[in-house]
Write a structure and sequence with these properties.
- The complex is a heterodimer of chains A (about 160) and B (about 120).
- With about 160 residues, chain A is of the alpha+beta class.
- Chain A has four helices and eight strands, in the order E-E-H-H-E-E-E-E-E-E-H-H.
- Chain A has an eight-stranded antiparallel β-sheet with strand order 1-2-8-7-6-5-4-3.
- Chain B is α+β, with helices and mostly antiparallel strands and about 120 residues long.
- Chain B has a single domain, classed as Orthogonal Bundle (Arc Repressor Mutant, subunit A).
- Helices cover about 65% and strands about 10% of the residues of chain B.
- Chain B has five helices and three strands.
- In chain B, strands 1-3-2 form a three-stranded antiparallel β-sheet.
- In chain B, a hairpin with a 2-residue loop joins strand 2 and strand 3.
- In chain B, helix 1 runs antiparallel to helix 4 and helix 2 crosses helix 4.
- The two termini of chain B are about 40 Å apart.
- Classes of the chains: A alpha+beta (about 160), B alpha+beta (about 120).
- Chains A and B meet through strand 1, strand 2, helix 1, helix 3 and helix 4 of A and helix 1, helix 2 and helix 5 of B.
């Protein structure tokens, strides 16, 4: 059974996803290292991903496209920065145009994968995303929690629902 | 794509508009009520013209609404746009929950077929 947790850290402006799996670190690493396995989880069911170039070495660019229900094929890439099998992977994740050139206007983020052994067996997989442009979104949400803020974001929803 | 409520251009404008501390502060001040541009300008050590430019960027991104009241330009936060921003984060949250679950399902397949 997968235990998952997603936390938005409004101070560090990151989103941290944690899951626990009853497998060895080497097996968990394969989920990222084997493109055929990666394809089975990266894209949502409505947007399955196909990895074109996949070489987890620092400096390499991993490329993929997703296929949407209407046949649209958005492209994405990872610029691989750090690789320490089976423990750690750091990539810059972004969207690309038809020539695989990064789309600067679209949000890209730094993604850090960490696989740690769990006491008593299994692993804890942690994926931390730091958003270059989404962080401002996170700050906006954080503002709703700041002291002195008249309206929390949740209250805004309530007002909108009136 | 994942965020199908917004076009790429809209997302871009939203991010750009929120990438500045003064603009975020303007959003925060105007979300709970209307403010005049000149009133807002008193909160920042920048010129009225600079504040007007910030308001224009926010207006273009749809984060604030502007209207004229007598001789004053008045600004109010756009709750719909803020809600979209929140939605964007929620989408991301559910995208990753889905990914982690799919990884779990893949690993479960091993244990079912692994003994043969």
């Amino acid at each position: 059974m997968t235990v998952t947790h997603v936390a938005k850290d409004t101070e560090r402006l990151t989103m941290t996803m944690t899951a626990e799996y009853d497998v060895a670190a080497e097996r968990a690493w394969q989920l990222w290292d084997d493109p055929r396995q990666l394809e089975r989880w990266w894209g949502p069911p409505t947007y399955p991903a196909t990895f074109v170039d996949h070489d987890l070495r620092p400096g390499a660019r991993v490329t993929y496209f997703m296929t949407g229900p209407s046949g649209d094929q958005p492209r994405g890439f990872w610029d691989v920065q750090e690789v320490e099998p089976p423990r750690r992977l750091v990539v810059q994740d972004g969207f690309a145009d038809e020539t695989w050139a990064p789309l600067d206007a679209m949000p890209s983020n730094r993604m850090v994968l960490e696989i740690a052994d769990r006491e008593g067996g299994g692993v804890v997989m942690t994926v931390t995303s730091t958003f270059a442009s989404l962080e401002t979104m996170e700050q906006l949400v954080a503002m709703g929690m700041e002291e002195g803020m008249t309206l929390a974001m949740g209250q805004i929803d309530a007002i909108l629902a009136e | 794509m994942v965020v199908d409520q917004l076009s790429d251009a809209e997302v871009d404008r939203l991010f750009h508009a929120l990438a500045d501390a003064t603009r975020r502060d303007i959003v925060r001040r105007t979300v709970d009520g209307e403010h005049s541009v000149s009133g807002l300008a008193r909160h920042y050590p920048i010129s009225l013209t600079a504040v007007q430019k910030h308001v224009a960027v926010l207006e273009e991104a749809g984060l604030v609404l502007k209207h004229r009241h007598g001789r004053e330009q008045r600004v109010i936060g756009n709750h719909d746009a803020l809600r979209r921003a929140q939605q964007l984060l929620d989408e991301l949250d559910s995208l990753w929950r889905g990914r982690l679950d799919r990884m779990g399902a893949l690993l479960d397949e091993d244990s079912r077929g692994g003994t043969t």
